[in-house]
Amino acid sequence: MSDPGTTGATEIDGGLRVLQRVVLPVDRDLDVLKLYVEGEIGRGAEAFAAEAAAESAAESGGEGGDIVGRRSVVVPVGRRVSFATYFNAFPASYWRRWTSVDEVFLRVRVRGQATVIVYRSSSKGHVSRVASVRVDSDDAHEETFRLTLSPFIDGGWYWMDVLAGERDAVLERADWCAEPGHVRQGRVSLGITTFNRPSFCVDQLVALAAAPEALDIVDEIFVVDQGNQKVRDDGRYAAAAEGLGHRLRLIEQPNLGGSGGFSRAMDETLRSGTSDYVLLLDDDVVTETEGILRAVAFGDFARTPTVVGGHMFNLFVRSQLHAYGEVIAKYRWWWEEAEHTRREHDFALPPAQTLDPDAKPKTSSGGLRQDAVACTAASTSTTTAGGCASSPPTSSARSACRCRCSSSGTTPSTASAPARPGSRRCRCPAWPPGTSPGRTRTTPSTGRRTSTSGTGSSPRCCTRRTSGAATW
Length: 472
Prior knowledge:
17% of the residues lie in helices and 30% in strands. It is an alpha+beta fold.
């Protein structure tokens, strides 16, 4: 049975705007797989062949550009997988509170013998079944669920589960969408500040070049090089630059710190006058490119100009979220986790229902309430080991000429706050481009980046590499 205001699978016209794609980690990285999907998915040769066929069909339909298996999942016979996960559940309460969207559409394309079930949760973690549909076909079949956001006053998510019957079920695509109305597709410029980390910075550029679906909405990528070990001297820079084409702009200037580098990127974005947003990234990060698309979509539909921030995961326990949201302890002038959230929540661990009667579904870091993070004066951001923030240029106009607030690497990382009075700041879950470690230091003897202890970790959004291997 469906909730009031919610319909089951229906046939609707096209023209929907994709808010959030259901994705899987690049190369099916098992260390972070549970941030994307729960349950047993097919990993054998037949499963990969089915996924490749799904991707090939999508490419022939003009939707190419994804890595094979990035959008497709094979559910083995009799198995069930859930997308009640960090990256693929839909943060309905955030969209209801901060944006003009009042209903969303879950569009799925499946084949084989499959049952798709849609669930929602409340701020207290109560779970309700919303709608379902059964498919039994060798050909791809598309279904759409129309879902209202009216129940999500103070928290809650939507997600789906896929069950396979007597044959494998193949989820070829799934998207959370909305009617665009008067909202147009926004565009973004990226600002990357770097200092003597050419290899890390080129890793970032290589990842961006391999994501054409994200580059479609990117105007320019400003790399502000402030060191004496130049990015352009890295052996892979030429290939990365070729892949990014006219979008890449390498700017070399004296070392003005993170403040000077990011301010330069904001200033260049304003001078170009083509982008709706500027996304600020540190050099030692690798972007989960789906996050770029989600951040821009959220900003497009926001009721007022809004700075969208992301999250940061643990360097060593890659499924562990340092903090879901943070506020300032005013009397100590220090960061602490927001109310109703937990620090160091591990999404890979099953809820200990028998031990903890208050344990919540794994889409939450301690509850399903949605809470605003701290919003301070004109520009609040620090420059630790990596992160990102998406801001409208109108909000960046005043902050571009100011120093980004920092405390020489001693303050936890945050997303920058809007400069314009009346603007808002929101850290929306499930869109981060990836993860980043907390504070780091360079070991003199090896030059390797290592994590430090202390309180220097907080929500950000990107992945960093250590010794040439991907880390979080």
